[in-house]
Design a protein that fits this description.
about 120 residues, mainly beta, 11 strands, about 0% helix
């Protein structure tokens, strides 16, 4: 069983930056594909970025060039550096872990709120 705890959310102005962190415990972290998802009010949860156990990176088109996902297997941590933030990035951001290469995410954190003011 994997437990995921996100941190680093907050309120930031348009154009600002935030760094989200996700601490993982349980399981074999280095073998998981780790992903970030987000859900805005009234919208479905959407994929943001993922990093495989081989550190292959995948991004949603909406965040390419602005967001960077990374991982530290020694610390069981995954990060999401968010730059040039826009009001449409406002959402609850969730960290998730997949044992299936990103096909299915079995473990989810509780989420952290990111609010970008205009």
């Amino acid at each position: 069983q994997v437990q995921l705890v996100e941190s680093g959310g907050g309120l930031v102005q348009t154009g600002g930056s935030l760094r989200l962190s996700c601490a993982a415990s349980g399981g074999t972290f280095s073998r998981y594909t780790m992903g970030w998802f987000r859900q805005a009010p009234g919208k479905e949860r959407e994929f943001v970025a993922a990093i495989t156990w081989l550190s292959r990176l995948v991004y949603a088109d909406s965040v390419k060039g602005r967001f960077t996902i990374s991982r530290d297997n020694a610390k069981n941590m995954v990060y999401l550096q968010m730059n040039s933030l826009k009001p449409e990035d406002t959402a609850v951001y969730y960290c998730a872990a997949s044992e299936a290469g990103g096909g299915t995410y079995s473990y989810w954190g509780q989420g952290t709120q990111v609010t970008v003011s205009s």
